[in-house]
Design a protein that fits this description.
Leucine-rich repeat, LRR (right-handed beta-alpha superhelix), mainly beta, 22% strand, elongated, single chain
């Protein structure tokens, strides 16, 4: 059992530090914020229960907790700050509460997550949030997400399938860089731009449909080695994507509608 003396809690219910060695930790009821580096590099803890009084998890709070396998979030959690769970490589399954409004940059960098579901109040996925999550195989970006920042899913080595909602208008730089097993991606009508290195080193990507709404594609959006490997760009006949394919010497096919939406 976790003892209250294992926690450093100030007068405004801010958890500064956990000093215990228990494998199973229950944070005391009444704590409202788990402070910066509160559990950082604690290699003992395997599970954490966060009470419903907690509304925030600060920077580096659980960074490097390499044994952490399970975390039960507060039902009133509003934010997870940057690097909060970086290098939690045994953390494979999480359920983010519907109260959550923001997830900071690199919050789950190099975690062992196998899946992720975004709550409805999340409107932006920050820079590098899921970099190096090599166990992720599928990502569904829902309608409520309007912006996905650079390198959000970089180096997710086993990511195979991505579905993006029509709320997103830009595929940011390096977004899926080094996702070497990515084979299927749905880019919806409404996306307007694909930035540099968005699909760099996506070695398994052989075909991609680009809708007519896209009017800007950076020269380095796709790995230039794909010219030799015959990446095929599928797009409507008079679209910008076809012009881009011709200019950059990629194979192309005239396809009016996204063939993968119901696939």
């Amino acid at each position: 059992m976790t003892e209250t003396k294992d926690f450093q809690i100030n007068t405004v219910t801010y958890c500064n530090k956990y000093c215990g060695t228990n494998e199973e930790v229950v944070i005391p009821d009444g704590v409202t914020v788990i402070g910066k580096s509160a559990f950082e590099r604690n290699e003992s803890i395997k599970s954490v229960i966060i009470p419903n009084t907690v509304i925030g998890i600060d920077t580096d709070a659980f960074r490097g907790c390499i044994s952490l396998e399970k975390i039960v979030f507060s039902e009133n959690l509003e934010y997870i700050d940057e690097n909060a769970f970086t290098y939690c490589q045994n953390l494979t399954d999480i359920e983010l509460p519907e109260s959550l409004k923001s997830i900071g940059a690199y919050a789950f960098w190099n975690c062992g997550l196998t899946s992720i579901r975004f709550p409805e109040k999340i409107s932006k996925i920050e820079w590098g949030t899921f970099v190096g999550c090599s166990c992720l195989e599928e990502i569904k970006i829902p309608q409520n997400v309007k912006e996905v920042d650079q390198y959000a899913f970089e180096d997710c080595k086993n990511l195979k399938r991505v579905s993006i909602s029509s709320g997103v208008t830009v595929l940011s730089g390096g977004l899926f860089s080094k996702c070497r097993n990515l084979t299927d991606i749905i880019i919806p009508l409404g996306v307007e731009a694909i930035h540099g290195n968005a699909f760099e080193m996506c070695d398994s990507l052989e075909r991609i449909f680009i809708p007519k709404s896209v009017t800007c594609i950076h020269e380095t959006a796709f790995d230039q080695r794909k010219r030799k490997k015959k990446l095929t760009i599928q797009a409507p006949k008079d679209s910008y994507a076809i012009e881009y394919a011709k200019k950059m010497h990629f194979k192309y096919e005239y396809v009016e509608e996204n063939p993968y939406v119901n696939g």
